[in-house]
């Protein structure tokens, strides 16, 4: 079984075209997140795979920046509702940091595109209308308006009006584009009326208007020679945008509809992403907690129409563990659970990989670093020692010292530690956080049995060398069994004396991560 990106590329390779154009598009109605930017990631992966197969292919991204604002996006103030209905291209920047509303919400995405290895040509719907790219398509749509109405009406409960035109001018009076109704035209001059009460005329060559979406989408396919396009599942519904635009594309513009790649929405902690409610997770935010390849892996590990829920909180640790495992299997650092899983892991990582041909990145286990960072602080060398003592370095690094790391490996290590720090500061729940009480012994009550356990444990650690946490773990349990002390009570005593709280990370690994002399003295309440 081959990966679905590979399957799509194989299908497209059979088509007799000079160049494949994989299109993507995003409505600039607010922050661009990992849900509504899926088009871009999928399109890029398909284009990349086609080029690997020796096919000429490029990826384009169209900013739908001439569409009307329908909801005020988070975190804009409520008084931005005065711009509802106006094209994004005409709305000012909310913070005064950019030229306009569109640039304000586009820039964060465009700033990280290279980090994700995405190669794409960017287009602007606003600029396309202003430069006249759509003019001939508007004229063609007007000339064929009766057939277009028939196509639309096949999928509508209420038929369109006899004088309806597939075009929305921007009202000269109120500046809105979603409240106008074009009802007649003479050459390039369109007559319209607006819900604000204004009636007027406009010249299509001015760019102050736009085709109805399903006609615009079909026109866009012809303009760019689109052969494939990913899009959200709403467009893929029976009788939805893709169905209608496909008929218009073939009948009105004489162009075959592109290969469709519909995808399911991504939810955030079980909630639908919403720019107006501030429920979203952006690609630039992802880079603060994980490598770019891990977002690719998240998007490509399952088929596009499979439901996906993302959580940057505790579930993220399970996810990043899985990503690390897949990466290490790909680089032959670890073995997969089975032959089937091995093949699957390698196929997915090949799609997710950004810098093809580069050696294994130095990314120590994220979950372990969550604890190591809280013990050692931002001291990379000290953290490296903790990793080494706890056998947390994969086989390519297990015999290395900190000084052996290359400049590239150090940068990768730095990035991962920064990711861990940001995750701890931003998304980690309280129970994950701790602080070693180095200056004084916490004054928390212990039973006589707990005191004896700590004393015996101190002697054990002082007199024996442990090669890994599993060995210390077993030795600790031997003491607990001899003393007939419940493990929970024993571990609780450790955390009370070192952290000043009742819970903490896995005890054996935690103790091995600390300075040995400090541990012995603290367990004996000497310092």
From TrEMBL:
InterPro entries: aa-tRNA-synth_I_cd-bd, aa-tRNA-synth_I_codon-bd_sub2, aa_tRNA-synth_I_cd-bd_sf, Lys-tRNA-ligase, Rossmann-like_a/b/a_fold. ATP binds at residue 275. Coiled coil: none annotated. It comes from the Archaea. It catalyses: tRNA(Lys) + L-lysine + ATP = L-lysyl-tRNA(Lys) + AMP + diphosphate. The keyword Cytoplasm applies. A motif ('HIGH' region) lies at residues 28-36. Pfam families: Anticodon_2, tRNA-synt_1f. SUPFAM superfamilies: An anticodon-binding domain of class I aminoacyl-tRNA synthetases (SSF48163), Nucleotidylyl transferase (SSF52374). GO terms for cellular component: cytoplasm. Residues 410-525 form the Aminoacyl-tRNA synthetase class I anticodon-binding domain. It is an enzyme of class 6 (ligase). Signal peptide: none annotated. GO terms for molecular function: ATP binding; lysine-tRNA ligase activity; tRNA binding. Its EC number is 6.1.1.6. A motif ('KMSKS' region) lies at residues 272-276. One of its GO terms (biological process) is lysyl-tRNA aminoacylation. The keyword ATP-binding applies. Belongs to the class-I aminoacyl-tRNA synthetase family. This is Lysine--tRNA ligase. It comes from Methanobrevibacter millerae. The lineage of its organism: Archaea, Methanobacteriati, Methanobacteriota, Methanomada group, Methanobacteria.
């Amino acid at each position: 079984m081959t990966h679905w990106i590979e399957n799509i590329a194989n299908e497209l390779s059979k088509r007799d075209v000079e160049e494949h154009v994989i299109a993507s598009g995003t409505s600039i109605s607010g922050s661009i997140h990992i849900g509504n930017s899926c088009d871009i990631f999928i399109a890029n992966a398909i284009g990349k795979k086609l080029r690997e197969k020796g096919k000429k292919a490029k990826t384009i991204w169209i900013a739908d920046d001439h569409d009307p604002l329908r909801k005020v996006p988070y975190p804009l103030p409520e008084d931005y509702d005065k711009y509802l209905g106006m094209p994004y291209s005409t709305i000012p920047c909310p913070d005064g940091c950019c030229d306009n509303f569109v640039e304000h919400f586009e820039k964060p995405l465009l700033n990280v595109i290279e980090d994700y290895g995405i190669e794409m040509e960017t287009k602007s719907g606003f600029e396309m209308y202003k430069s006249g790219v759509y003019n001939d398509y508007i004229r063609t749509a007007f000339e064929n308006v009766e057939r277009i109405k028939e196509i639309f009406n096949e999928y509508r409960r209420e038929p369109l009006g006899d004088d309806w035109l597939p075009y929305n001018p921007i009202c000269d009076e109120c500046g809105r584009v979603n409240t106008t109704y074009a009802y007649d035209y003479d050459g390039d001059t369109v007559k319209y009326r607006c819900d604000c009460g204004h009636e007027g005329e406009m010249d299509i060559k001015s760019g102050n208007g736009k085709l109805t979406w399903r006609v615009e989408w079909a026109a866009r396919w012809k303009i760019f020679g689109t052969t494939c396009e990913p899009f959200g599942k709403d467009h893929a519904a029976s009788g939805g945008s893709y169905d209608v635009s496909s008929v218009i594309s073939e009948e009105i513009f004489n162009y075959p509809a592109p290969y469709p790649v519909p995808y399911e929405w991504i939810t955030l902690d079980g909630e639908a992403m919403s720019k107006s409610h501030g429920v979203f997770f952006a690609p630039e935010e992802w880079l603060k907690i994980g490598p770019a390849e891990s977002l690719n892996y998240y998007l490509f590990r399952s088929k596009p129409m499979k439901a996906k829920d993302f959580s940057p909180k505790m579930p993220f640790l399970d996810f990043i563990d899985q990503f690390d495992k897949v990466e290490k299997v790909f680089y032959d650092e670890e073995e997969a659970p089975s032959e089937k899983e091995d093949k699957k892991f390698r196929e997915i990582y090949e799609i997710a990989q950004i810098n093809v041909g580069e050696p294994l990145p130095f990314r120590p286990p994220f979950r372990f670093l969550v604890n190591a960072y809280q013990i050692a602080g931002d001291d990379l060398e000290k953290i490296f020692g903790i990793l080494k003592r706890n056998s947390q370095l994969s086989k390519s690094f297990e015999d290395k010292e900190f000084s052996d790391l290359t400049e590239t490996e150090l940068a990768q290590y730095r990035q991962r530690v920064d990711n861990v720090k940001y995750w701890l500061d931003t998304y980690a729940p309280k129970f994950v956080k701790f602080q070693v009480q180095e200056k004084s012994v916490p004054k928390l009550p212990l039973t006589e049995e707990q005191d004896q356990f700590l004393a015996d444990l101190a002697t054990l650690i002082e007199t024996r060398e442990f090669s890994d946490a599993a060995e210390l773990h077993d030795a600790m349990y031997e003491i607990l069994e001899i003393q007939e002390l419940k493990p929970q009570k024993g571990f609780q005593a450790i955390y009370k004396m070192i952290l000043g709280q009742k819970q903490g990370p896995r005890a054996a690994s935690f103790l091995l991560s600390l300075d040995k002399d400090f541990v012995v003295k603290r367990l004996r309440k000497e310092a």
